[in-house]
Amino acid sequence: MKIPDLGPRNGSHPRTFITLLFGTVLGFMFATFISSTTLRQPWMPESYRQREPPSIVSDPHTGNELRGASGPEQDVGQHAAHEEAHAHENASIAQQLHREVRVLCWVMTNPSNHKSKALHVKRTWAGRCNKVLFMSSVEDPLIDSVALPVSEGRNNLWAKTKEAFKYIYQNHLDDADWFMKADDDTYVVVENLRYMLYSYSPSHPIYFGCRFKPFVKQGYMSGGAGYVLSKEAVKRFVEDAIPSPLCRQDSDGAEDVELGKCMEAVKVLAGDSRDTVGRGRFFPFVPEHHLIPNHVDKDFWYLKYTYYKPDEGLECCSDNAISFHYVSPNQMYVLDYLIYHLRPYGIVAHSQPLPKKLSLGDIVRVDDLGKTTPKPSAQQHRRYKVSSNRGKAGNEMQEEVTFSDMKAKEPNT
Length: 413
Description:
Layout: H1 12-36, H2 84-87, H3 92-100, E1 103-108, H4 114-123, E2 131-136, E3 145-147, H5 157-171, E4 178-183, E5 187-188, H6 190-197, E6 206-209, E7 211-212, E8 220-221, E9 227-230, H7 231-241, H8 255-265, E10 269-270, H9 287-291, H10 301-305, E11 323-324, H11 329-340, H12 360-370, H13 378-383, E12 385-388, E13 397-400, H14 403-408
Parallel strand pairs: 1-2, 1-4, 2-3, 6-10
Antiparallel strand pairs: 4-9, 5-11, 6-9, 7-8, 12-13
Helix pairs in contact: 4-11, 5-7, 5-8
């Protein structure tokens, strides 16, 4: 049998393979070099070079790329008060609350976020506070930031919170009645905050926010959703809590949990910020997260942390919602437009009646009952509306007696 000739066996096949492999690697390296220098294009005239990619993707067919985009470099401006839609607005009650419920807002930020985030807070909702302070570790005239004596980083947020309230206590305690802390990606509807606080005295030792239930017996308020302390609560925190061994003395720890422990230690109440039908007002995520049913898995941490059982759909959120977290710079302007400018023609809104003032005893009773009393249905809520003649000179006013008001009048058991 004749064996077929398989060609020379002098090693040409290995050399061919090595040559092919070397050529492939060399080609890949050259292609990588070309692609990496495309933006620089050093062989082209300066006027043709693309110096840096655009900060905002301008494809109008999708908004997904805009979520991480930086905010506009210039202020977007405001609609003039004399324009038709705004000229017919009646802001008298909002102006009254601006005078009677003075709110100092302080915004937690850091040098890397001054221009990219904090500036857009300053240009949108923060201007509606009676006073606003941006707490950082360096002074910056762009946002008039306060340089606190702390290091930056997540592990120093608790130290930063303590220093911020100490600074407020020493310099601005008499400038406001309530003191709202927010992150530089939190959006706050300040008018709704004042409306909620109207029932309470700043002399009450109380604070409000999105109430979580682990780690602290009475619960604590989510840091991202923002929380608001009464003047008395600020006093107790700075004078009694911060020096106390019952409060964490180092810089580490979760800022909101540690604040909650300190509040409980100095007998500052964790208030119920829900509206009269039990809907939430402070939210740790953007509206989409709370509004859309089944947006997250049933074992998502928020559903386990929240003090009150959250509802899905429109039942999640009060019509007088106060705050949302993880709001991008662009979304700050979108929310500002939707809340303060867009109007459905022909639907004329009238201000809700201001709620009654509550005593400290009322607050404690309502909070105790809220832990055991089921949320009222819309039909039950309507049933508690009554009319009373409170008129002077023959004027009649409609008074809404809410579910919480009715329960607050029951004997304390």
